[in-house]
TrEMBL record:
<dbReference type="InterPro" id="IPR036627">
    <property type="entry name" value="CobW-likC_sf"/>
</dbReference>
<dbReference type="InterPro" id="IPR051316">
    <property type="entry name" value="Zinc-reg_GTPase_activator"/>
</dbReference>
<dbReference type="InterPro" id="IPR027417">
    <property type="entry name" value="P-loop_NTPase"/>
</dbReference>
<comment type="function">
    <text>Zinc chaperone that directly transfers zinc cofactor to target proteins, thereby activating them. Zinc is transferred from the CXCC motif in the GTPase domain to the zinc binding site in target proteins in a process requiring GTP hydrolysis.</text>
</comment>
<feature type="domain" description="CobW C-terminal">
    <location>
        <begin position="223"/>
        <end position="316"/>
    </location>
</feature>
<dbReference type="GO" id="GO:0016787">
    <property type="term" value="F:hydrolase activity"/>
</dbReference>
<dbReference type="GO" id="GO:0000166">
    <property type="term" value="F:nucleotide binding"/>
</dbReference>
<dbReference type="GO" id="GO:0005737">
    <property type="term" value="C:cytoplasm"/>
</dbReference>
<protein>
    <submittedName>
        <fullName>Putative GTP-binding protein YjiA</fullName>
    </submittedName>
</protein>
<dbReference type="Pfam" id="PF02492">
    <property type="entry name" value="cobW"/>
</dbReference>
<dbReference type="InterPro" id="IPR011629">
    <property type="entry name" value="CobW-like_C"/>
</dbReference>
<dbReference type="InterPro" id="IPR003495">
    <property type="entry name" value="CobW/HypB/UreG_nucleotide-bd"/>
</dbReference>
<dbReference type="Pfam" id="PF07683">
    <property type="entry name" value="CobW_C"/>
</dbReference>
<comment type="similarity">
    <text>Belongs to the SIMIBI class G3E GTPase family. ZNG1 subfamily.</text>
</comment>
<keyword id="KW-0547">Nucleotide-binding</keyword>
<keyword id="KW-0378">Hydrolase</keyword>
<keyword id="KW-0143">Chaperone</keyword>
């Protein structure tokens, strides 16, 4: 198969909560001309993002309980082999890596060897950087820096949440870390989903130097993901109070909270997100038929499972 016959692949990276699922959703909803297959990778044992992607379930494949760059890389290769047999059903493969994944080994799977590279070709690595948090993330988290350094395109997200004058300075900082990438901005009112595809960044053969010589990925062993599942409804006020308190006391240790809740008195699913100090939530649509289930994921350091469990139990109706 020549390169033009192979299915193009976007590897979407960016630290926890940078807006990856939001842009994947915006792209799938708006681009009716193309059919997407989506692989979503989550660090924790329970996946939230897959259920929040606006596609028919068949096209969204969730690979949870590890990062695509290491312990679920074999799953990625197997999944691509299965997708290759359904090639006629989609035009583009989007891979949303976990916020803690190194994009290099994922991208490499599509460049060399006799596995996924036989049926897929890498279009580009797109990295999202959260305008509110990126400076702190770069300072503290080596993987955030690495994700930026490896990108073909960098999208500074959530620019609606920072003062207008700050965007240029942030872009200049990012450009210093990766002068080869192209740079875009994205905000709630003007999302840059159309720029996730069509990079053609890997058309001219060979591995770019920044991937070939990149040191091996390193995960911070201190970062853990704790997942909780409940077949009962939550009290919204108690849950909001708990999340506010956790964010205040855990500070920078609590990197990410997300989930889908069954709320007492609400017929629709309620999805919520917390990224360090910021949290928000909204109803996102009907529950599928069958029993309802609330799913909550915390990612961070020094997380106290019994305390979280007790706090959540107090919010159940
Ligand atoms: N104000 C604003 N909020 C945004 C924007 N993009 C994403 N968000 C919010 O940021 C939160 C995290 O967004 P997600 O799309 O789930 O981020 P993610 O990168 O998929 O998160 P992980 O999978 O946990 O790494 C959600 O509450 C989004 O609604 C944006 O451009 N502006």
């Amino acid at each position: 198969m020549n390169d033009q016959q192979k299915c193009p692949v976007t590897v979407l990276t960016g630290f926890l909560g940078s807006g990856k699922t939001s842009l994947v959703n915006a792209l799938i909803r708006s681009d009716r001309a193309r059919r997407f297959a989506v692989i979503v990778n989550e660090f924790g044992a329970l996946g939230v993002d897959g259920g929040l992607i606006a596609s028919s379930q068949d096209d969204v494949i969730q690979l949870s309980n590890g990062c695509l760059c290491c312990n679920v890389r074999g799953d990625l290769i197997e999944t691509c082999a299965r997708l290759a047999t359904r090639r006629a059903e989609f035009d583009w493969l989007l891979i949303e890596t976990s916020g803690l994944a190194d994009p290099a080994p994922v991208a490499q799977s599509f460049l060399i060897g006799d596995g996924p590279a036989e049926a897929f070709r890498l279009d580009g690595i797109v990295c999202l950087a959260d305008a509110v948090h990126i400076r702190g993330q770069i300072a503290r988290e080596e993987i955030a820096l690495r994700q930026i350094a490896l990108a073909d395109r960098l999208i500074l997200t959530k620019t609606d949440l920072v003062p207008p004058g700050e965007t240029d300075g942030l872009l200049a900082d990012l450009r210093r870390l990766n002068p080869q990438a192209d740079f875009l901005t994205s905000s709630a009112d003007s999302p840059s989903h159309r720029h996730l595809t069509g990079l053609e960044a890997w058309q001219i053969g060979g591995l770019p130097a920044r991937i070939r010589y990149a040191p091996p990925p390193r995960h911070d062993a201190g970062i853990v993901s704790l997942s909780f599942r409940y077949a009962r409804a939550f009290d919204f006020t108690a849950f909001s109070r708990l999340i506010r308190r956790l964010m205040a006391v855990s500070g920078e240790d609590l990197l990410r909270i997300k989930g889908v809740l069954w709320l007492e008195g609400e017929d629709r699913k309620f999805a919520f997100h917390g990224v360090q100090g910021l949290a928000e939530g909204d109803v996102v649509g009907p529950w599928p038929k069958g029993p309802r289930e609330s799913l909550i994921v915390f990612i961070g350091r020094n997380l106290d499972r019994p305390a979280l469990e007790a706090g959540l139990a107090d919010c159940l109706v």
